[in-house]
Write a structure and sequence with these properties.
alpha/beta; Rossmann fold; Tyrosyl-Transfer RNA Synthetase; 2 domains; five-stranded parallel β-sheet; 13 helices
């Protein structure tokens, strides 16, 4: 039992409303592709983590909504188990307290993403302590489930080093309790806003396409999207090309995109044709998603059953791990 992995792949999702197509491309699609490859995953909705910058009511409000989104986007509950983090709140909190003894405040303050948040959104005088403990709680989530692999973006690599270091230090002091999780770095696809050079985000709705947008709004947004002058390949245009190809797997459509871009680089006026094609791709993707999501939420017991099964698995894993921890630290 000691140092044995229980979960092949483990990842968390934030309970947030208004997902954009950039969220799908960057976070959901890689998970669905791993699922297609036969990778068995455990996914949790990180409602406790979201308390870092949200009220409890807001954190809980979107839990079921984001589960419905992920199911409609291709997550298969027969292959991927899902649970809400607060279903094992005691186990996560207790493990976080035990692990927090093995990391200093100074070390946590050196985590790059934490430094960025303190610089951009808060400061040491106003930031709550949950922000500082984020990497420690992340370690608790992962180590309780005895996860083998954790897919993360570049911004989370430093967090994973904290996780791995905590596991090694705990093992050194108390015996081989935790298997050391490996990092599976996810390719970074930076989908830009339709307007300007910032990332597509719900904080700038004019430049974002939301999964809930109606088709009239989608067409209007794409029509006014920034592209590039003839013969130029701007960051915005490159982002739109990536988006189009990520949303559509049809090789013929990809060839049409390549042809249009070649003409554009040759100095032809074809950005109108590109926007028309991008519109067709996005409308087709969103139309299918919205139909599937309506089917998912039609029967509330469907999500209830999925979350109950996932919570049962997560609780069993967490308790068996804590049994080892308790017996080792006596």
């Amino acid at each position: 039992m000691k140092s044995e992995y229980k979960i092949e792949l483990y990842t968390g999702i934030r309970p947030t409303g208004d997902l954009t197509i950039a969220n799908y491309v960057g976070a959901v699609k890689p998970l669905v592709e791993l699922q297609k490859q036969g990778v068995k995953s455990l996914v949790f909705v990180a409602d406790i983590h979201s308390l870092t910058d949200n009220e409890p009511a807001t954190a809980s409000k979107f839990c079921r909504e984001v589960v419905a989104d992920y199911l409609a986007l291709g997550l298969d509950p027969s292959k991927t188990n899902i649970y809400i983090q607060s279903a094992i709140a005691y186990q996560v909190s207790y493990m976080t307290l035990l692990l927090a003894r093995h990391v200093s405040v100074a070390e946590l303050l050196r985590v790059p993403t934490l430094k960025d948040k303190l610089r951009n959104n808060a400061n040491p005088k106003t930031a709550n302590a949950l922000l500082l403990l984020y990497p420690v709680m992340m370690a608790s989530d992962i180590l309780l489930q005895r996860a083998k692999s954790v897919p993360v973006g570049e911004d989370q690599l430093a967090h994973m080093e904290v996780v791995r270091r905590l596991a090694r230090d705990f093992n050194t002091k108390y015996g081989e309790i935790f298997p050391i999780p490996t990092v599976q770095q996810v390719k970074s696809l930076r989908i830009l806003s339709l307007k300007g050079s910032r990332k597509m985000s719900k904080s700038f709705p004019e430049g974002a396409i939301f999964l809930t947008d109606d088709m009239t709004k989608v067409k209007k947004k794409i029509k006014s999207a920034e592209t590039a002058l003839e013969g130029k390949l701007s960051d915005s245009l490159q982002s739109h090309i990536i988006l189009a190809k990520e949303l559509c797997d049809d090789h013929e459509v990809h060839s049409k995109i390549d042809t249009i871009i070649k003409d554009h680089m040759d100095g032809k006026h074809v950005m109108g044709a590109f926007k028309d094609l991008l519109t067709v791709i996005v409308v087709d993707f969103l139309s299918k998603f919205q139909v599937r999501r309506a089917e998912v939420v039609r029967d509330p017991s469907l999500i209830d059953g999925i979350l109950k099964e996932g919570a049962s698995m997560a609780l069993a894993n967490a308790e068996s791990t804590l049994d080892l921890v308790r017996s080792s630290i006596k």
